[in-house]
Design a protein that fits this description.
alpha+beta, two-stranded antiparallel ribbon
């Protein structure tokens, strides 16, 4: 869903939201393309939106399952950094 809004000072903004369910959704090219295109739209760069942008994954991607107990205990974002 997209929305354009105005604040009291007259400035406008754009927001995008999705009901994407889990990290595993990023395994699908279409989901990645939706997020990339939404980011371009949200910052006003519609002219940068391509019909089929390269949304290939960079590096290894192993999402944890979205289920009870599927999380990785003690895992911090810094643990997943590519430059480790």
């Amino acid at each position: 869903m997209t929305k354009t809004y105005s604040v009291t000072e007259g400035k406008t903004g754009r927001v995008f939201t999705t009901t994407m369910g889990a990290s595993q959704d990023f395994e699908f090219e279409g989901t990645r393309r939706m997020i990339v295109n939404a980011c371009f739209w949200a910052v006003g760069l519609e002219d940068k939106i391509l019909d089929k942008p390269n949304v290939d994954l960079v590096g290894e991607f192993k999402p944890s399952p979205f289920k009870s107990g599927g999380h990785v205990k003690g895992c911090q974002p810094s643990d997943l950094a590519a430059d480790k």
